[in-house]
């Protein structure tokens, strides 16, 4: 219970409060809430910043990983859903608990929405079919972001097929294969070129993960 946790923290520091107990309690409560929200936001941002792809030494292992990532319900998507659900603090039940602290409702809501806004891009990615209101901005509706994860899944499948075809294609010379592998001879519709364009639409941490 949010009230109980705040009261416990205040009781620990009660020696600092003078006779204006109620006024000081409200100030201290808001300070605790802001500190908690700041640490909460940092924790999720640090998690996203720590995402690193697994490096594989064999083609088979790499193709297996690409196959996993090409699925709609893959481990990375499951993590994004967890991040999204835990950083959308513009929630009626959660805000009601905060309002029960007896503080200024507008200030509380502003601080909660501040955290939500820091993760808006992830909310848009995950809540493809849900209209999500963050502050005065409606997200997740009528944007290219709605489909980007599905597009990425298709791009990953196409890259996997290209790798298989590249490995088994006997119509290309060794020089042509080396040139392609080093980045040459890729047209705009090449699976790898398309993938690189698509990941630029992602939040920075996800773009780095897929790069």
TrEMBL record:
Tree of life domain: Bacteria
Pfam families membership: IcmF-related
Residue intervals of the IcmF-related domain: 4-88
Protein name from the UniProt record: Type VI secretion system membrane subunit TssM
